[in-house]
Specification:
- The structure is a single chain.
- By secondary structure, the chain is α+β, with helices and mostly antiparallel strands.
- α2 crosses α11 and α3 packs parallel to α8.
- The protein starts with a helix and ends in an 8-residue tail after the last strand.
């Protein structure tokens, strides 16, 4: 992982949420019949994250603006203002049903907020901000304010969005920004006009195409510079959801196994979605970590504050526990760690204090509705976990009979001991 990526770390706490339904009756939209986007738009409307107009039209060829597409992507990703799922990005706090509220302490919060994104200068009175979408988009990383530094951090929200811009937002929705930012200059995008693309654009197009998000024109071209229609926008987002939601198994329960020297105990992780993809189980790291933290009164020392933070620009999850901090990037197998040496000193996200660590797993984490999902090939409890570890010697155990996946946290030796 490049050094400059680590310097860009910015914060916001991570959280999980129940399903939010926006469904309304939009059946029989009169201007979709026979349109090339009919299947995907109909699926999106039935799911409820996009609506037709009051006159029962959808207007698929109408252009869509930057603000409209941003709201569309967030709604599809269940990051809706006022919802439990968006609480993390609205308040910087992490809360679960039945548990007490979890947040970083004030000293850590003060230090970490020095790395927040700069505000967009033309958004204070726009409907996207007034409705609460802009703040979530920046804190999650759907939008990156530095991308608009050349225009004085003006977003121009009512400007028609281009197909390139949509591809970038979709990569960020799916947690593919890190592989997209690697050097793809010599690669073929799969489109006939990739010779017209700048090198930095190719990575985003390649990753979005791999995920099945992008569709070209009949002649095989992409034309990323063209403005986009409502039909193109909805199709891209629905394609992204099809990729993101792959393998969701609602029958699998998730538990955390707490371990200390006096024995183990288990605790259910509420509302934790699991993905089972090609024999790999993906579990939300933030939810498991928060449940583990809420049970620290059972004799485990979580010095220097045990909490979860999120870096929206680089899309990295930071797990802090037992005097250790782990930095895990969406879409990348790179993992970094550092010691939090003093419980009394403020915790800073100094890139040079992180060191790469070698993990046995080589499975890049996925994103699901704003949560980083770490994936491991599950093992039975009787098997050795030495070949199936993630940061902190975490292991996913699998109980096939009970359809239960258990994340085991194994305490690390404190440098103070």
């Amino acid at each position: 992982m490049r050094k400059w990526l680590l310097r860009a770390v910015v914060i916001g706490l991570l959280i999980s949420l129940p399903v939010v339904s926006l469904a309304v009756d939009n059946s029989g939209l009169k201007d979709l019949k026979g349109h090339w986007s009919e299947a995907q738009v109909t699926k999106a409307v039935k799911t409820g994250w996009i609506n037709g107009y009051p006159d029962k039209s959808f207007r698929p060829e109408k252009t869509i603006t930057r603000a409209e597409f941003t709201k569309m992507a967030l709604a599809a990703d269940r990051l809706i203002p006022g919802s439990d799922n968006a609480l993390l990005y609205e308040t910087g706090k992490q809360q679960y049903k039945g548990d007490s509220e979890i947040a970083v302490n004030s000293e850590d919060q003060r230090t970490l907020t020095e790395y927040e994104q700069k505000p967009l200068t033309d958004m204070s009175s726009h409907w996207l901000t007034k409705q609460g979408w802009t703040n979530i988009a920046l804190n999650y990383g759907m939008l990156v304010s530095e991308d608009y530094a050349h225009s004085g951090y003006r977003f121009d929200p009512d400007k028609p969005i281009t197909r390139y811009e949509m591809a970038i937002i979709m990569d960020r929705m799916l947690g593919l920004v890190n592989p997209a930012m690697y050097d793809h200059s010599g690669e073929d995008t799969g489109f006939t006009d990739d010779g017209n693309m700048m090198d930095w654009q190719k990575g985003y197009v390649i990753e979005a195409r791999k995920a099945g998000v992008l569709q070209g024109y009949p002649d095989g071209s992409f034309h990323g510079e063209r403005t986009a229609t409502r039909a193109e926008a909805v199709t891209m987002v629905q394609n992204a959801l099809d990729y993101m939601e792959k393998g969701i198994d609602k029958d699998i329960t998730v538990k955390v196994i707490h371990h200390n020297y006096s024995g183990d105990w288990e605790q259910n992780v509420p509302e934790a979605m699991v993905q089972n993809i090609d024999g790999v189980l993906y579990i939300p790291a933030d939810r498991c970590h928060a449940v583990d933290y809420s049970y620290t009164d059972r004799g485990v020392d979580y010095a220097s504050g045990s909490y979860v933070t999120w870096a929206p620009v680089t899309q990295g999850l930071i797990l802090n526990r037992e005097m250790k901090s782990y930095l895990i990037f969406a879409g990348s197998k790179d993992v970094y760690s550092r010691h939090m040496y003093s419980q009394d000193s403020p915790f800073t996200l100094d890139a040079y204090s992180y060191e790469p660590i070698q993990m046995n797993t080589v499975i890049p984490p996925r994103m699901l509705y704003g949560h980083l999902m770490i994936g491991l090939k599950p093992v039975e409890k009787t098997d050795s976990n030495k070949e199936n570890c993630f940061p902190g010697n975490n292991t996913i155990f699998w109980d096939a009979g009970a359809k239960s996946a258990s994340m085991r946290f194994i305490p690390q030796e404190s440098p103070r001991s």
